[in-house]
Structures are given as C-alpha cells and as structure tokens.
Fold this sequence. Notes:
Elements: E1 2-3, E2 24-27, E3 33-37, E4 44-51, H1 65-72, E5 95-100, E6 105-112, H2 116-128, H3 134-153, H4 164-169, H5 173-176, H6 183-186, H7 191-201, E7 207-212, H8 217-228, E8 251-257, E9 264-270, H9 278-292, E10 307-311, E11 324-330, H10 337-350, H11 360-378, H12 382-396, H13 401-411, H14 414-426, E12 430-436, E13 483-484, E14 488-491, E15 497-502, E16 508-516, H15 518-523, H16 525-539, H17 541-547, E17 551-556, E18 560-568, H18 572-582, H19 604-617, H20 631-638, E19 644-650, H21 654-665, E20 692-697, E21 704-711, H22 720-731, H23 737-744, E22 751-759, E23 762-771, H24 776-792, H25 797-811, H26 818-830, H27 835-847, H28 850-860, E24 867-872, H29 877-884
Parallel strand pairs: 3-7, 8-12, 15-19, 20-24
Antiparallel strand pairs: 1-13, 2-3, 4-6, 4-7, 5-6, 9-11, 9-12, 10-11, 14-15, 16-18, 16-19, 17-18, 21-23, 21-24, 22-23
Helix pairs in contact: 1-3, 2-8, 9-11, 9-14, 10-14, 11-13, 11-14, 16-20, 18-21, 22-28, 24-28, 25-27
Amino acid sequence: MIRTPAVPQTRATPDAAPAGGGLHKRTLSNGLRVVLSPHWPTPRAAVAVHYGVGFRSEQPGQEGMAHLFEHLMFRGSASIADGAFFDGLLPLAGAANGTTHQDYTDYFQTVPAQALEQALFREADRMRAPRFAPAELSAQLVEVAREIRHMRDGRPYGGFPWPLLPQALFRTFANAHDGYGDPELLGRITPEDCARFFDAYYAPSNAVLTVVGPQGPEELGDLVERHFGDIPARAVAGRQPLGEPEPDRDRLLRRTDPQAVRTAVAVGHLLPDPATELPAYVANMVLAELTGRPGASSLPRPFTGPVGAGCGFFGPLDALSPDVLVVTSLLPAGQDPEDFTGRLTDWWSRLRDPLGPAASGDDAVAAARSLAARHRRDHADLQRRCRALGRLELLHGRAELALELPGLLTAATPEQVASAAAALADAHRAVLVLEPGEVRGGPACAPPPAVPAPGPAGEPAGPTRPAVRPRPMPPLGDPVAPAFDGARETVLGNGLRVMAVPDRRAGLIEVRLRVSLGPVGWRRPERAAGLLGAADRAATASVRAMRLGGELQVSTGGQWADVSAWAPAREFPRLLGIVADLLDPARLPDGSAQPGNAALRRSPEHRMDGALRLHWLGPQAAPEGAGTETLAELHRALLSPGDAVLVVVGDVSPRRAVDEAARALGAWRAAAPARTLPASRPLVPATAGAPDVLVLREPSAAAVHLTLCAPEPPREGHGDAARYLATALLGGHFGARLAERCRRLGRAEHVVFAARDLVGDRARALVRVTAPRRSLADAVQDVREETAALAAAPPGREELDTVRQYCAAQLLTAFDSPGLLADALRHTMVSGRGLEWVIRRPRLLGEVSGEAVSQAARALFVPVTDTVVVLGDVGPAHEVAAELAVRR
C-alpha cells in the first residue's frame, strides 16, 4: 500500500469506495460549492474547478464562445502575468488543462502535494479577476481557429459524431448548434464581450471546487477558505432551456468528406434523464457495453465491422438531459448505412428477453461487472477522480455518484437491460452518415432549421468587477514522500524476477509481464508479433480476462514482449492463470503449424532502434532451422523466464502475490537461446572525423528523425543518480539545455530530448532529434556543443537545484494511479534496478555534486554523436556522414 505520514487507510472491497478518507462537502458564503477528498494515498494532489457554462449556454451569434473563453482563462489574471500561468507548474512536473463540454467547462491541475496551495491560488486568482488583454485575445483567436481546423475541418471524419450528430437529433439551438463556432465570427469578439461573458457565468455560485490530496480535511478546508472565501458573490445568468420533444420520426443527416476512405455512420438515441431515471440510465450504460465491446456478449454479433457504443458524446453522466446514447461504425466496403442500422435494431431486439435461449442475462451481469471494475480503475487515477467528483456535483448535485456508480452498475438487472434494449429497438433515432465525396459538405438530407431558444434569464448588463490588487504567490509547503509498505522483490527458481507492491485505491490488481525477445525475436520482430498473437488466441487470454471483469493486452515494439493486465482483486489467481496459459507452448496448435508474421505499427523511434539492433546482431548466420520453427519451438526460443520481470500492484498482500506468482508461473520453462551479441562495429566505413551512420530512407517523410547514441560505459566515480540528473539537465526536463538552445537559436521546428535505455542487450545513452532536412547538420552540431559544454564545466548550484527539484517531482507522477505505478516499476526492473533504487532515489538525487553530473555527461553523452541512425528523406549513409562531419 502506498502510504503517506499520518494517513489512515481503509481496505476497499470490490464494490466499495476506494481507500481514502471519504468525501467532505461544504458551500462557502459566496456560493462556491466545495468537494474535498482528503487522505488520498498519493504524494501528489489535484485541483479542479467546474463552471456551469458550456456549449449549451451560448446564445445565437455566440457559437464557440465557451471554448474560446476556456483558452483565455489561462492567459493572465490579477496576480499572474499574461502567459505566466504555467511558470510555477513546469519546474515541479505539474500539469494543467481545461476542457469545454455541453454544460460545463472545467479547469484542473495536478501537482506535488507541497504545491497544492499554489494550485489553489492560481484557480482563485482567475476566478476573482482574469485579464482580457487585446493581444492575448488575438493570440487565442488564432489558436482556436487552428484547433477548429485540426479537429473539425482539416482531418478525415472531422466533426464525427460530434458536433454533427446533434444537428440531426435535436431541434433547439442550445442542443443542436456547433460548439466550435465559426472562426471568422469569433474574430469579432472584443475584450468587453469577454468581460460580460465572465460576469454572466464565472461567479462562485456557478462553480464547484474539488480537491483530492493526502492532506486532512481541516487543512484542505482552511486552504480553500483562505484563497476562495473572499471572492465576492454575484448573480449569474440562468441556464438555457434544454427540453427536447421526443422524435416523431427517424432523422437522417448526410455529409461528404474528400478525406474519408470509407463510409462512417453514427446512430443517436435519447437517454433517460439520470436526475429522475438513474437506474434506467445505468441500464443503458450496460447495454452500450454489450453493443460496442467485442466479447462482452455470447450472442453472435451481427456487425461486419468494428462498432463503438457509449452514453454521452464525452462519456456517461457528462451532460444534463437530454443526453444521447451513440453508436458508431466505420463500414466495411459494400455495406450501406441502412444495412448497419437494420442490424443494430435487430441486435437490440434479440436482447429483449434476458432469459431467452441465448442467455443474454448472464452477458448483462458480466458486462455490468466489467464496467464497474473499469470505473473503479479509472477513478483511482488522481486527476480523473478529481474531475469526476466535481463534474458529478455540478451537473447532478451528487459527487458521491463517483463512489456509488460501481454498485449501481452491478445492481442493474438483466431485465432492466432488456427493457432498455427493447426501448431503443422501438424508438425513433437520428442517423449521421459521413461518406467519401469530392467536397466537404452537405447535408444531402438536412434536419429542419434549429429554433433559437430564448436568452438566459438574469444575465448581468455588463462588467461589474472592481479592480483587484495583485497578491503574492504562497510558498511551497512540506513535501510528501511516498513509501512502500511491505513491498517485496524476489527471484523465482526459474529466474523470473517478481516485484509486488500493495495498493488499495481501486480494489483491483495490475499485472505487468515483460520478456526480452532476445536475438531470435530481434531478428524477426514481425514473426515474434505473430507468435504472440497466436498465443493470445490459443489461450483466449484477452477474452477470458474481460469475462473476469478486467482486460489483458499482449504487445511488442520489437524489443520486448509485453503482457499488461488488470482485474478485480478477487480474480488475481485466475488472472495469473490466464498469463500462465499464454506462456504455455503446449496450448498452441499442433507441431506442424507455422507462425505467421504480424504487422507492427511502430513509431520512427521503434523503427530506428530495430534497425540498430539488427545491425548490432551482425551478419551472423541465422540459427539452424530459422524460419521453419513450429509455433511451440518459436515460443520456447522467444519467451524465457530468465529474461523476464513480473510486477504486481494492487489490493493483495505482497507475500500472497509472490506465492501466487510462484504457483502460477514457477513451472514456466524455456530453451533459452544464446543472448550474447557481438561487439559493436561501425555502421559505415568511417571517413576522417565522420560519425558512423545507419540510414533508413523514407522519401515521403516531412521531417528527419535522428537517434544519436552510444553504449553506457561502466560507472567510474559517479552512480545512477548522477547519470539520471545529467540526462535530465541535457535534454530531459522543461528547461533542459538542448531545449533552451533551440529556443535561443530560433529552431522552433526542432524536437530534442535525451534518455537512457536498452537496445538489444546493451544499455545506452541517446539523444533523439526531429528536425527539417535542411538543418540536419545544425541539429547534430547543437548536440555536440551542448554535451561538450556540460562535460567541460559543472552546472551551477541554481541550475542543479532546479533540475533536482524537477526530477524529484517528476518521479512522483508514477504514483497518480496503480496502473501508472505498475508501468513505472516494470521500467525500473528491466533497467536492472529494483526496489532499493526506487526507495533511495529521492535522497540520492539530493547528494549528487555538479562535478559528478559533469563527469556523467562526459561518459554518457559526449560519444553519442559518433553513432547516428537516420530516418527520413536523405541520401546514402556516406553522404550523410560527410555532411554531419563538416563542423565536427
């Protein structure tokens, strides 16, 4: 269990609220509603403010105003200079963002616990007195126009299904209009318009403040009162009327898109109002799960392509009524939209009888259980929990729904789900069809014109805010250090390394297995991917995990085979049993079966690393029989427990987790192949002063990707902490030297970062660069000069303290959820480190001297420009090598 000092803990049962101190709610004298989730077991905190204003608050002529205003709220307030909102966040690895939805706009931050008061200060300052400077408004109008082009107008299927589907389903302006708006009309908005919009909707009484953190309720309450209590109360505009008549016929909207390659269809149905019919709404959530998730139902699916289904355009319980159940599909060639909608109606009709021969009632129970577990997993995440509590309090008056929803889902009966299916099968619907065409447009069959709704009642006539004097930013508080209470690390008899860490935030188990593919897999990654897919199918692993109420995915990027899984804690032994079946070659088809290749969708980085691995393997003859192995033989060659790590994070004691792992995976054996690679050799014959270069030509590439790398040398006079800080200082944090150099020299198109990892069986230091072709030599020269400067002169105390602070804070982000923690621990283990490193790392970072950082940079990064892998529209390797050697 992750614990913080003096924090009481409670054990979470599968359908209970997660660990923590419960919810505390209050309303300040100015009308601001406050939701606190204290004693949350994490070293970080989250703050969210939800305002009751969204797309459906806009008047005719204001389309897109709510979204534009969300942007402006980050651009300056009485105490925070224009554009400086993030200045205090980035040094602490904090994050902030905002989103606009139908009925609310939310602003949220996640920060280390010691920075919670600063996060509250930022939110209070912009609730009290934002600034709407003309220059900032102009800049954000440009940014919003760019976002509209990217999200709606300039990409394939833009606007599908939102905001096009509401235009087919709804009749009133509030519900039917496009919340993105017209960039040309938005350009007419003035700072005075912004001030009026703020006064109409951004009052404390129209907002909910939510705080989730490790502090106690008294401390959190005092901080909230200190920063928000003196914000003046004021009247706000009333909500738009949202009532919609029941559709009296099916409605169809057709649009064409020149970038579409196949026809897409979206079907929308009105949902029951959760304010008065919550059980019926929840039953529709279960029905959507049965409809959209392959394997969620034992009934044969009538759809010939992938189908997505869910409640709400942005998620369940994310809007007031009217809300919509949405079903989408990208249709296979030859299928028309009418055939799809007919199949959908037939599917819902077959689900009418929960006790019929298809046993759909059992499917409904399993789907509800799966949804409940997924909800608990999602809301064990720090930021998602904070935002959900605030959203549900603002829209539905009950933040408690975030804790109660798993129980409501599992209480949904098969009869309720069947009733929901019957209602949809018989109801009128709206259908959006987006199909290939020469121009973007339509509609070929449009809905009637939307009728503008009357304006909101009680809107203030104009700006009423008095001038507000700036206030000083509060100092940082005391840090909260995470600790592992009873975590265990061991090695099983077959060589499998196991780490188990208790975490009771969700009542779930997270399992991560990573296996090095070794030379056999590295030579033929597509064949390895085919083998992993065959093993998944033979063990029916993904389907069985879903039936447990969890998920399991098998993947590879060429270096590792990864199994990522989670399930309710009570299913831990069965989940490990599924993983064990994946690792059992006897479950594969008979010995004559040959593994096929599977396409790998790999990033440029993966492709460059794959080419480097193959080069380092050298022109060795393939092992005898290579390419003719059966599935079982390849399975044994690729998946060896001696080259694997297993991480378990969740609601189980570490001792039991290790025992269960030994019971399920202790018998795993493999005929381990030789894992020794030849010594590294030049990539191309080096000319005088030229780097070794490996080129992957991609003539259509718009930019060139570079990996500059060198094997890590043995540690001499400095340890992992010094190397960690040297990597961050050079290219791994917000103010890294390489990033600052790009800013200083105007290289806005360059993306540069430094890292350390494994490629093949070698630890290496690397710098990744993405740059235009014309500045390839400049990019490499930038790395040469910055690495040489860091190696030659130790960083000063201020710079070193800055990077120390950032690294210590960034490490805490792994504790935001059990899943993120499992991912981070897997990365730690495959790098050869263990719990001792994780526990001691914060202290070790504070003990590193500037001289040790400089020495680490000299050992790690000065050599990286000697070996370069290039992917892009470039010439032969010898030409690139000569070009990069010009200013060497």
